[in-house]
Write a structure and sequence with these properties.
about 10% strand, globular, alpha/beta, about 425 residues, 17 helices, 6-stranded mixed sheet, about 45% helix
């Protein structure tokens, strides 16, 4: 596939749908002048369960692989642990394995070759003496201010941050050297770490790399799609009825294009995936109501869809069912592979063990102060008498005659 592509076509595919490229000349030098496969690194901290937002970077990895690039996928287990303990150390190993299953399945579902995909576990080299010494060297040329600034959009921000948040950006910088790549790829939220890497690596006599960034796709609730916010994302293993329910509730204001996560998903995932699967320009179909007896709307570019959405020719009531149908189809091969793999299912349970359901604590009923035994009331004794400050109100005595007299039964008896 890549062998039949010209160098310019490879460049076009590599840069498709990117928001920004830093040091583009490095990429062009490798492809146009050195005439060798571009080596790209993309890393992900193995923390929460991967969700449908992962289709966005996977589409780009698929583009890179289709263009003949070598893609090094870093399962950053130690990064996950450093990021304010997002991944407990006991679960890190299982979560890294779970990510491997998910990402390979995602790429296979996009109909791209994965023979140039290299999966690397961060702890396989980040604990070596050489890496540790380089981390010390890097820490001697990067200020606390610059490291904190670099990680501000990636590392979890808390009121009393730990030192691990300062190490995180330094390790991501150093990974470019140890993975031996030309380019690091990531979301635009990584830009400050990329800028740090460009500045810091030459200071310890390592070469500067290029950096490519894809846009951040808004979540279903309008903000960033996040594993920690269940309302913002759809899990890759969510069944169809859950997908439908979440998309039905998703934020999708009529005629609003900016910040619309539903439209962004069409742009960066559905159109691109359809093109990859069918080896042509992608298209997106919106079925209209049968009662209208009209042809479906077919879009092969996002500009036309956005224009129709702004003009209210496409409404949320039309758009959401179309995306629901397309996404359910997209998830089918991934979920089928999961159902057919006992090993993957076992790893899923170990990586994300079900949380224990806390039993609701029963609270004693308030039966009032006149109830025998109530606080401040009275307490019944085995021989029938009662004690307590309110005993005169309920005491019937210890024999039948006394009880009848106290209850005034004889005076109330019918004559």
């Amino acid at each position: 596939m890549a062998d039949s592509m010209s160098a310019q076509d490879k460049l076009t595919l590599i840069k498709a749908n990117l928001q920004e490229v830093l040091k583009e000349d490095i990429i062009e030098d490798v492809i146009l002048r050195q005439n060798r496969p571009l080596k790209i690194y993309w890393g992900t901290a193995t923390t929460g369960r991967p969700h449908c937002g992962y289709f966005v970077p996977m589409v780009k990895l698929a583009h890179f692989l289709k263009a003949g690039c070598t893609v090094k996928l870093l399962l950053a287990d130690i990064h996950g642990f450093l990021d304010n303990l997002k991944a407990p150390i006991e679960l890190v190993k299982f979560r890294a394995e779970y990510y491997r299953f998910v990402i390979v399945s995602l790429l296979k579902s996009l109909n791209v070759p994965i023979d140039r995909l290299v999966i690397v576990l961060g702890s396989s080299y980040q604990l070596s003496a050489e890496y540790t010494m380089d981390l010390y060297r890097l820490s001697s040329v990067v200020s606390e201010h610059d490291s904190k600034k670099a990680g501000s959009e990636v590392v979890k921000q808390v009121a009393n941050p730990t030192l691990s948040g300062l190490i995180y950006p330094l390790m991501q910088t150093l990974d470019e050297q140890y993975l031996d790549v030309d380019v690091q790829f990531g979301g635009v939220d990584q830009r400050k770490i990329f800028a740090l890497a460009s500045d810091a690596l030459p200071k310890i006599n390592y070469k500067e790399r290029a950096h490519m960034m894809n846009p951040m796709v808004p979540g279903l609730s309008g903000g960033k799609m996040s594993s920690s916010d269940p309302d913002s994302k759809i899990d890759l293993l969510d069944p169809p009825h859950v997908v439908e329910k979440k998309l039905r509730k998703a934020h999708c204001a009529p005629k609003e294009v900016e910040g619309n996560g539903i439209l962004s998903f069409v742009e960066y995932v559905l159109l691109a995936v359809d093109g990859l699967k069918n080896d042509r320009k992608g298209s997106f179909v919106i079925e209209r109501r049968a009662a209208e007896d009209v042809e479906p709307l077919i879009y092969d570019d996002i500009a036309s869809l956005k224009a129709d959405y702004e003009a209210d020719r496409v409404t949320p009531q039309l758009l959401k069912p179309a995306i629901t149908k397309a996404l359910i189809e997209l998830l089918k091969p991934i979920q089928a592979e999961y159902e057919a793999s006992p090993e993957w299912q076992d790893i899923a349970n170990k990586a994300y063990p079900p949380s224990e359901v806390k039993k609701k604590e029963k609270k004693p009923k308030n039966l009032g102060t006149r109830f025998p035994g109530a606080k401040g009331g009275v307490e019944a004794k085995p021989d029938g008498h009662v004690e307590g400050k309110s005993k005169d109100q309920v005491n019937l005595g210890t024999d039948a005659e006394g009880a009848m007299k106290n209850l005034d039964i004889q005076s109330k008896a019918p004559s």
